[in-house]
Amino acid sequence: MVTGYGGLPGGVALSHLCVYDWPAADGLHGGTPHLHLTCSEGYVVTGGRGAVQTLTTSGYEVTPLAPGTVAWFTPGTIHRLVNEDDLRITVLMQNSGLPEAGDAVLTLPPEYLADPETYAAATTIPADAPEEEQARIARARRDLALEGYRALREAPEGLATFHRAAAALVRPRIDEWRERWRRGARAAAEATGEQLDRLARGDATHLADAVVRAEQPSTRGKFGMCGRLDVYPQG
């Protein structure tokens, strides 16, 4: 029997994002291109302006972003945020924040995708490093991912190879991800199903268990893939 679910509605999670204003080799400013393998992600634009570049097997697109825009995309969408003027976003994530807890592969050149150790060496930002060093690593991995991204844009037939490499990289973590899904999105859906069953029987006793919760960010200014993040407890 489902005993209840206390997370954010539907097993989503959120973070507040200030997109990097670092210039790239193509003259644009912004974040690190990457994809998610099992999670959809949504953007609620709260300030500034910019765009999200996306690359899928259907082609390349640019979606303008301005205050009030809500944009989202499904797993397999390579996305790159471009900051044109102080772009700020509230990011909505499936599966209790899994996109920021492992479900992301950066578009590094193929030689960096060969195995988890090589990939981690190119992408990990040590939490105990000084802020200047964290910024240097975040910017270096952004620039490296842009190299692979440009190659995929120029030769999109390479997407299938990139997809296979990304799937191989995350395979060791699938059991961990499945447990997060069980505790989050699945538990939320099952709790709703049980409540509907109770109401159909004329049983409203679950309403007596109502609670209110509130959180402040657990971390502020974290170096993320696309910018500096204010993140909330997740999972």
Brief overview:
30% of the residues lie in helices and 27% in strands. It is α+β, with helices and mostly antiparallel strands and 235 residues long.
Name a few traits of the molecule.
two-stranded antiparallel ribbon, 235 residues, 9 strands, alpha+beta
Give a verbal description of the structure.
With 235 residues, the chain is α+β, with helices and mostly antiparallel strands. It is 30% helix and 27% strand. It has four helices and nine strands; from the N terminus they run βββββββααααββ. The radius of gyration is 19 Å and the shape is globular. The model has no long low-confidence stretch (mean pLDDT 96).
**Individual helix count:** 4
Distance between the termini: 21 Å
Mean pLDDT: 96
Low-confidence stretches: none
Report the strand count: 9
- Rg from alpha-carbon coordinates: 19 Å
Topology:
Layout (H helix, E strand, L loop, with lengths): L12 E7 L14 E2 L5 E16 L2 E7 L4 E4 L4 E16 L11 E2 L9 H8 L7 H24 L4 H12 L3 H27 L18 E5 L3 E5 L4
Antiparallel strand pairs: 1-6, 1-9, 2-7, 3-4, 3-5, 3-6, 8-9
